[in-house]
Design goal:
mainly alpha; Endonuclease III, domain 1; two-stranded parallel ribbon; 55% helix; hydrolase; glycosidase; Adenine_glyco
């Protein structure tokens, strides 16, 4: 018998693999939290499958999302990224990735880690949404609004409430797997 999954992932084997393996799994590693933020930021205006199909190129182009390395990128590296095939070469998104890495360095100093900062918004708890129908999933909520506002105050860019909501789903702060999906119970 086939496993029941969230409907959004059924368009390709790659999307199913992402859904079954990564989406909604709580992340606590600073580098991976940064990577997912940059990937979700790059999704703005595009489909997730577009980003997912470029994920290996993103990791390569951005030095495996090493926060210190990305924070130190200068104009030369920024221009190199704008010429790199296989990633989203939007000038503003590239500049925002570098800027956000620099902001995260400040957050790490203040909180001890980016992980401590992210999870402080829910006191380390996963929010379990009871989604019976995927149409119930919002594009933002009070948590994504608050985190977005705080990140912007810290100088971050491309961190609006909708991007942050998708980010919180991806990193497992919010469990938005539908109740009928086999991953919902696994991630509770």
């Amino acid at each position: 018998m086939d496993k029941k999954r969230c409907k959004w992932c059924l368009s390709s084997d790659k999307m199913i693999h992402y859904h079954d393996t990564y989406w909604g799994v709580p992340v606590h590693d600073d580098q991976e939290l940064f990577a997912k933020l940059i990937l979700d930021m790059n999704q703005a205006g595009l489909s997730w499958s577009t980003v997912l199909n470029k994920i290996e190129s993103f990791y390569e182009a951005y030095d495996q999302f090493d926060i210190a390395k990305v924070a130190s990128y200068g104009k030369e590296k920024e221009e190199e990224l704008r010429q790199t095939p296989g990633i989203i070469r939007n000038k503003l998104k590239i500049a925002a990735a570098i800027n956000n890495a620099q902001s995260i360095r400040g957050i790490q100093e203040e909180f001890g880690s980016f992980n401590a900062y992210i999870w402080s918004f829910t006191k380390g708890q996963v929010l379990q949404h009871k989604v019976t129908d995927e149409s119930q999933v919002p594009t933002s909520n009070d948590l994504s609004e608050a985190m977005s506002k705080d990140m912007k105050k810290r100088g971050m860019k491309f961190v609006g409430p909708t991007i942050i909501y998708a980010y919180l789903q991806a990193i497992g702060v919010i469990n938005d797997h539908a109740e009928y999906c086999f991953r919902n119970k696994e991630l509770q």
